[in-house]
Amino acid sequence: xxxxxxxxxxxxxxxxxxxxxxxxxxxxxxxxxxxxxxxxxxxxxxxxxxxxxxxxxxxxxxxxxxxxxxxxxxxxxxxxxxxxxxxxxxxxxxxxxxxxxxxxxxxxxxxxxxxxxxxxxxxxxxxxxxxxxxxxxxxxxxxxxxxxxxxxx
Length: 153
Fold this sequence. Notes:
Arc Repressor Mutant, subunit A
């Protein structure tokens, strides 16, 4: 897998993975555990690549937030997915704040744009309206953002 020989070192595997995209420390640890490396070797390797700047949970989180915003996902879903990937709350909050500031993210407008890409009207009846609400809720938008998006269609 990943073009590595059977006797590839943890570092070689990590470098090959990071050459493709950013990974969280927890994701890399999981991949190395799947290759049956010892926990001590995994931790040592991950400490080293982090010290060398090859891997950073902060950089991963910011990149992840940007990619999910481009997909039209809301803050609730983004936070949940980052937690699943082993990103701690403080890094998660810092990454969200950083991207919100640098990209001028307006979650209400993002909810509106996401809804408008999928639906042309707020719904003719309560059943259709509920379908649109569920769509945005599944995307990670909160009640106020959903209400705003529906009011704009």
